[in-house]
Amino acid sequence: MSLLEIKNLHVEVEDKKILNGLTLTIEKGQVAAIMGPNGSGKSTLSYVLAGKDAYNITEGDILLDGESILELAPDERAAKGIFLAFQYPVEVPGVATMTFLRTALNAQRKLRGEPEFSTPDFIKMVRETSAKLGVSQEHLRRAVNVGFSGGEKKRNEILQMAILQPRLAILDETDSGLDIDALKTVSEGVNRLRSPERSMIVITHYQRLLNYIVPDVVHVMSKGRVVKSGGKELALELEAKGYAQYADEAA
Amino acid sequence: MNAEVRAIKTPAEQALTSAYQDARAALPGKGNVAVLRDEAFNRFEATGLPHRRVEEWKYTDLRALMRDALPLAAPADAAAKVKAKDAGKVFASVDCRRLVFVDGGFMPELSDLSAEPGLTIGSMAAALGKGDPLVAAHVGKVFETDDAAVALNTALMGDGAVIHIAAGTVLARTIHLVFASGETPSSSFIRSLIVVEKGAQAVIAESHESNASQVNCALELVIGDGAQVDYFKATQTRGLHVASLLLTVGAKAAFNTFALSSDASLVRNQSFVRFAGEGSTGALRGVNLLRGKDHVDTTMLIEHAAGHCASREQFKSVLDDQGHNVFQGKIVVKPHAQKTDTKMMTRALLLSDEAEADNKPELEIFADDVVCGHGATAGALDPGLKFYLMSRGIDDKQAEALLIQAFIGETIEEVAHEGFRDALMTAALSWLESRA
Ligand SMILES: Nc1ncnc2c1ncn2[C@@H]1O[C@H](COP(=O)(O)OP(=O)(O)O)[C@@H](O)[C@H]1O
Ligand SMILES: [Mg+2]
To answer: How many other β-carbons are positioned within 10 Å of the β-carbon of residue B78?
Structure first.
C-alpha cells in the first residue's frame, strides 16, 4: 500500500479555486520533489495535507495508509506522522522552544499510546539532535522562532522534524533564505532522516536543493495539478527550460 | 447642601442609608472621625450609587448591578474562623506574615503578630476608636476624591489593617493581608492604612475570597521619599467586590503593584495614584481572567503632580464566555510635572464571540516636555499560531492554553519578586487548566 494517495483533489479558498484535480501518490520511503512556478498551489497542498482549516475541499480525498485523513484535526495528523516544515515558520512569542518541543512530542506520543519521554531523556535527545544541525543551546532557550533570521527559522523547522521523527515530512521551500553552508547542513540533516520508513515531499522552486537532497521522483505542478512526473533528471530539464511549457499544458 | 436632590432611591441605596443610620453610633471613632463619616455619607447620599452616566463608572453601573445591599457583617463565628485558616492559598507559596480578616474584621488570634523592628501593626477599628495619630493624619487624606464608593467606604469603615513601617526599615518578611469571608453573605467596609516611611522597603500582598458577599475595601498607601514598595492583590470573589487604592508617593521612591482577578464575578479595582515628589517610578500591572458572566473593571487615575517621574501601566485580560472586562486609565500630567514619562498598555484576548472588552485610555497633559504613550488591543487568538502548534501534535485546548499562557506570561514576567511571580503564574495556570 502507498503511504499517501491524493486523489483528484479540488480545493478552494474564499471561492477561489487553487487545487484543481490534483492526483499524487507517495510510496513508503520515497523522496518526491514537487516543483512548479510561484502560485501553482504548492504551499496550499502542504497546508491541506497538514490540516489547516481555512481551505474548502470540494472534491477528492487524501488517504494515509489507505484511510482518509480529511476529517482529522492537525494534531491527529501529526500523531499519524505528518510533519510540515513551513515555508514561513511562525514566531510564537512567549512559548519557550523547549516547552514547545516537549509538549508536542509528548502529545503525539500520548495520542499514539506511547509512553512520554522523561525530562532528562528528552533534554539529552534534543541536545544531540540540535548539535548535529548546528542549533545552539542559547537558541533553544528563546521563544519559538522569535528573534531568528529567515535561515535560522528554516533550520529550526528541520530540528523539529528530527525530534518528532515523522513518517511523512513535507518540506515547503526549505532552501529559500539559506546560504550555501546552511543549505548543506540542513540537507545533511534531512538526508540523515531518510529511511525506508520515512517518506518526504520536498517542495522547491529551484533545482539547487535537489543536488543535496536527491529525489526518487520529481513532480511538476502547475495551476493546481500535477502536470508531469519523472526521475531526478526532470529537475535538470526544468532548470534548463523553465516552467513556461507546463503553464501552457495546464491551461 | 446644594446637590441635586434625588427623589427615588433604589432599594440598595435605601438599605445603605438605614445601615448607616443604624450603625452610626456604634461605628468606631468619635469626634473628627464621626465628622469625617457624616461628611462622606452626605457626599454619597447626594449622588447615590454610581451609575452609567457617571463617566468613571460608565461600564460598571453599580446602581443597576446592586439589587440590594446586604446587612453589615456580624462578628465572625467559630466556623468562619476555622475556614479562614485556609484562606489566601493563592500566596501560600510565599513565606508571609499573615494578617487575617473575616468579613473585614481583624482576627488577631489567626494572625502573626510577632515583633519585627520598625514594624507596627494594628487594627483599623482599634485605631479609629482610640484616636490613633497616624490614622488621624492620613485617613481620608491620602488622595481626596469625590468617588462615591470611596465616600461610602469612609462613612461605614469598620475594620482593616493599620501598618506603619518606620524610616529606613527594610522589612524582612512580606505582609499578607488575608481577607476571608464567613458563610452568611454580608456587606463589609474595610479600610486599611499603610505608611511606608522614608527609605523603608516593604512587600505587601492582599488576597480576597468570598461567596456572595458585598465588599467595599479601600487601602490608603503612603510611600515616603526613597521608599520601595511592592504590592500584590489577588481577587477571587463570587460576590461584589469594590476596591479602592489611594496612593501617594514621595520623591525618588519606587513602587510596583500587581492585581490578579480570576474567577471573580463582579470586581471594580480602582486606583488613585499621585506622584507627589520628583524622580519616582511606579508600575501598575495586572491580569484579569474572566469567564461565565464575570465582570472586572480596572479604573485608574494617575496624577503626575511632580516632574521627572515615570509610570507604567500594563494590563492583560483573557475573556471567555460572556466575560466583560473594562479598562479605564486616565493619566494627568500637571503643569509643572516636566520630564514625566508614562506608558500605558492594555490588551484583551477574546476567547468567545460573546465576550466584551472596553478600553478607555485618557491623557490630560498640561506640561510640554513629557513622553506619554498608550496602546490598546483586543482580539482573538491568532489562528496561524494555533495551527502551527497543532501541526506539531498539540491539541486544540493545549495549543490555546500555551498561547494564553504566553499572552499573560508577558505581563507576569515583569514581576521582579520571584515568589510572587511564580504564585501569580500558578494561579493563572490553574484557571487555564480548569477551562472546560
Ligand atoms: N488564503 C488565501 N486566500 C486567497 N488566495 C490564496 C490563499 N492562499 C493561497 N492563495 C492563492 O492561491 C495560489 C497558490 O498559492 P500557493 O499555494 O501559495 O502557491 P505556491 O506555494 O505554489 O507559490 C496563489 O495564486 C495564491 O495567491
Ligand atoms: Mg509556496
So the answer is: 7
Residue extents of the structural domains in chain B: 11-277, 382-436
Smallest Cβ–Cβ distance between A75 and the set B383, B384, B395 belongs to B395
Q: What is the pLDDT of residue B435?
A: 81
Q: For B52, list phi and psi in degrees, rounded to 5.
A: -70, -15
Give CA–CA dist A223/B295, Å, rounded.
Answer: 52
Which of the four pLDDT bands, split at 50, 70 and 90, describes residue B5? low
Question: Cβ neighbours of residue B204 under 8 Å, at least 6 residues apart?
Answer: B163, B174, B175, B176, B177, B194, B229, B230, B231, B232
Helix (H, G, I), strand (E, B) or coil at B430: helix
**Domain carrying residue A142:** 4-250
Cell output for A62: 487524501
| Contact residues, A window 96-115, toward B, CB-based 8 Å cutoff | 99-100, 103-105, 107-108, 111
Helix/strand/coil for B383: helix
Asked if A93 has any chain B CB less than 8 Å from its own CB, the reply is: yes
- Distance, CA of B398 to CA of B386 (rounded, Å): 10
Answer whether B387 sits within 8 Å of A52, measured CB to CB. yes
Q: Which three cell numbers stand for residue A38?
A: 510561484
**pLDDT mean over B399-425:** 96
Average pLDDT per block of 10 residues along chain A, 251 residues long? 97 95 97 94 97 95 98 97 96 94 95 92 94 90 92 93 97 91 91 96 92 96 95 90 69 39
Q: According to the model, what pLDDT value does residue B2 have?
A: 46
Give the pLDDT score at B436: 62
Pick from B109, B49, B53: which is nearest to B76 by CA? B109
Nearest chain B residue (CA) to A74: B391
**pLDDT at position A134:** 87
Tell me, in angstroms, the distance from the centre of ligand 1 to residue B391's CA.
19
Which of B391, B411, B425 would you mutate first to test chain A, the one with the most A CBs within 10 A?
B391
Ligand 1 midpoint to CA A20 (Å): 13
User: Total structural domains in chain A?
Assistant: 1
Instruction: Please report, for residues A237, B132, B191, B408, the alpha-carbon distance to residue A245 in angstroms, rounded to integers and kept in the order given.
Output: 11, 94, 82, 53
Given a cut of 90, is residue B100 above it in pLDDT?
A: yes
- CATH number of domain containing A103: 3.40.50.300
- Counting every residue written for chain A, the total comes to 251
Is B257 in contact with B228 (CB distance < 8 Å)? no
Dig out the grid coordinates for B109 from the structure.
488570634
Select the residue from B390, B408, B411, B412 to test the A interface by mutation, using most A Cβ atoms within 10 A.
Answer: B390
Is B390 within 8 Å of A75 when comparing Cβ atoms? yes
Average pLDDT, chain B: 96
* Residue position matching grid coordinates 497542498: A45
Q: Is pLDDT at B3 greater than 80 in this prediction? A: no
Residue of B nearest to A54 (CA): B383
